[in-house]
Amino acid sequence: MADTIEQDLFDSSLVFIEDGTDQDTIFKQVSDKLVALGAVKPDFYQHLGEREKAYPTGIDMSVVNPDYPNVAIPHTEGEFVNVRKVVPIRLKQPVEFANMIDPNQKFNVSFLFMILNNDPEGQANVLAQIMDFLTTSSEETLNRLFHAEDTATIHDILATSFKK
Fold first, then answer.
1. Where are the beta strands (DSSP E) in 36-145?
2. HSE (CB half, 13 Å, CA atoms) of 6?
3. Gap between the Cα atoms of 113 and 90, Å rounded
4. Angle between helical axes of 44-54 and 23-36 (0-180°, round to 10)
5. What angle do CA 120, 81, 79 make, to 5 degrees?
6. pLDDT tens over the chain, length 164 residues
7. Nearest one of 45, 36, 74, 60 to 108, comparing CA atoms
């Protein structure tokens, strides 16, 4: 990946539509692709799963709009990552995640914003940017994103709508 791409949180080669039926399968599929692209280190997958179990990242979007699918923002420590990116992942079928606020509550998630951040200071900032995007974007923009059928559309929506 070229250094010039690093300036933007979204990279068209790091957008995925996945058809796994559980969290572990999705994490494995995406991690393998990210390793092949040089975005993460080989032990990323293991640490991503461990962190998700300890600190769930599911977000109940019904508080923003009951028609929106729930999302999750999985991530792990920067030492397992080579770049600073947000990896959007649309799930073809919902997968169960635990709620970030109440880990005992589980619900289905249909869209992931996986944070890759090799800058430990910037993790909270990227998370805040994603939350801002989810709570301030128009219903039309979010519905287009959540129902996009191809990775180019997902990338275009995020690259043009996301506030840096």
1. 58-59, 71-72, 85-98, 106-116
2. 13
3. 9
4. 150
5. 55
6. 333 333 589 999 999 999 999 999 999 999 999 999 999 999 999 999 999 999 999 999 999 999 999 999 999 989 999 999 999 999 999 999 999 999 999 999 999 999 999 876 666 688 889 999 999 999 999 999 999 999 999 999 999 988 65
7. 60
